[in-house]
Amino acid sequence: MRKDWAGFGVDLHLEVSTGGGRRRGLEEALRQAVRDGRLPRGTRLPSTRSLAAELGLSRGTVSAAYDQLVAEGYLATRPGSATEVADVSPTTLSRSEPPSEPSPGPGHHLQLPTGPSAAPLYDLRLPAGPSATPLHDLRPGQPDLSAFPARAWLRATRHVLSTAPAEVLGPCDPRGRIELRAALAGYLARTRGVITTPDLIVVTTGFVQALNLLVQVIDGPIATEEPGHDFYREVLRRAGRETVPLPVDGLGAQVDTLTGATAAAVVTPAHQYPTGVPLHPARRRALREWGGLVVEDDYDGEFRYDRQPVGAFQGTAPDRVVYVGTTSESLAPALRLGWMAVPPSLIGPVAEAKLHTDTHTEVLGQLVLARLIETHDYDRHIRAARLRYRRRRELMLARLGPGPGQPLPGVALPGVAAGLRALLLLPEEGPAEGELLAECERRGIALRAASPLWRGDGPGGLLIGYAAASERAYPHALEALARVLAGT
Fold first, then answer.
1. How many Å apart are CA 147 and CA 231, to the nearest integer?
2. Angular region, 172: left φ>0, alpha ψ -120 to 50, beta rest
């Protein structure tokens, strides 16, 4: 059933309210997706069986919702083909778009506003030796590179090179090619609920560049989650920016600790890094009401397994949230492609900073990614990857989690409903983090320590990635780690 879902055209973020019944909730969610343009005309919908499995509904509920929307004119069906969004939308698109900024073309000067306005990659524990490839690859934050969609990428590259005009080989807008910015605006709205326009998107080389651009245009201390990504804290420190801790508990970031003295907060509201907890709805509301700039790191927004996806926080406050995403986990880190959806008040300064940082991001990759999104090859790759990583996560839980045969009793694996990694917290009575890391390194197992994610003394643990290894190698890597935990 899920294979059929993975093979369908589009991925879609739906927030189905069940207050008035499941069928009515699904109907209204689909209506809204058509109205606000997240489901464009002609888009093929998944089968009733696939959508029911994805949303945890009965097939009859989905069929009834489809039938109702066909009757209302939102959807259309033809014998022998899939249900799709009708050619003529029954209502005018009603989503309010943020105001656009002028396009910074040649000679256009972007005015800056006046007045107020760690342990890096070497901690991934790569085994020593001439090869950078570990024997057992459990590094967090890296996808299965052997599953890169090479055929689709090659097909899109050939299309771009054979159809693009020669002018694409010249300098481009510092925000990036309009083809990719337009494709991203539609994709992010459809899959993550992001409210933006192509004019408000800046194509970057990744999250690190996004941070470096932002520190050039905002003043004041920046809050980062505690625990949180130590590498990004180090990026901010090297940029000369003071960081303040934003404590995290079982409900996510404690946003009530933010004060007016803090200029911005870097948060992971959909799936906190590394604990995995989503930001509680009450805290999402409090964060929306806080007066500072919010930088949303949606680092694994596409990969949800056990629960309804949590929409991007940016969709609740587009005028105060910078939404940041990349292809580092969805495709490959070497592509160096990322994006920022920027509030209208910051797009000029951010584009100016991008212009004077590296002029613009490499163009060919932008056009190829735009083509992948337009043809829905990107959606198909994401869906296939989601199923693959879910199977791996389940294998990890079965081998390392509580139950008979657990190699190290007392370990905890919180927050694994989403993402490509797991935080394994060690019991107080048991081997120390350093001891396990040394043994992993000796056996060629690449992962990383959890304690550096805290500024002070953090709990002992391991950060385990279940995506980096190939399908064939992953079970062996997992078994090697289990033997280390068991002390055998």
1. 26
2. beta
Q: Where are the alpha helices (DSSP H) in 149-192?
A: 150-163, 178-192
The rounded distance, in Å, linking the Cα atoms of 224 and 228 is 7
Phi and psi based region of residue 42 (left: phi greater than 0; alpha: psi -120 to 50; beta: remaining)? left
Token pair, residue 434, equals: 């350093």
Max Cα-Cα span within the chain: 68
pLDDT recorded at residue 308? 67
C-alpha 254, offset from chain centre: 21
**With 90 as the cut, is the pLDDT of residue 387 above it?**
yes
> How far is the C-alpha of 156 from the C-alpha of 46, rounded, in Å?
24
Burial category of 117 from C-beta neighbours within 10 Å (exposed 0-12, middle 13-18, buried 19 and up): middle
Query: 366-381 burial string, b = 16+ CB within 10 Å, else e?
Result: bbbbbbbbbebbbbbb
- Going through 374-447 in order, the beta strands assigned E by DSSP cover 421-425, 445-446
Which residue type is seen at 84? E
**Hey, how many other C-beta atoms are within 10 angstroms of the C-beta on 475?**
14
- Res 307 pLDDT > 80: no
Q: What mean pLDDT value characterizes the chain?
A: 86
DSSP 262-295: --EEEE--SS-TTT-PPPPHHHHHHHHHSSSEEE
- For 277-397, strand residue ranges (E) read 293-297, 321-326, 338-341
Task: Please answer whether residues 353 and 213 qualify as being in contact, where contact means their C-beta atoms are separated by less than 8 angstroms.
Answer: yes
DSSP run (H or E) holding 351 = helix 344-358
Per residue in 74-85, pLDDT (tens digit) is: 888 877 678 888
- Spatial separation of the C-alpha atoms in residues 120 and 440, rounded to whole Å: 19
**How much is the pLDDT for 292?**
96
The pLDDT value given to residue 9: 53
Place of tokens 């045969």: 405
Q: How far apart are CA 472 and CA 286, in angstroms?
A: 45
Mean pLDDT of the region 458-462: 91
Torsion angle of alpha carbons 422, 425, 430, 435, nearest 10°?
60
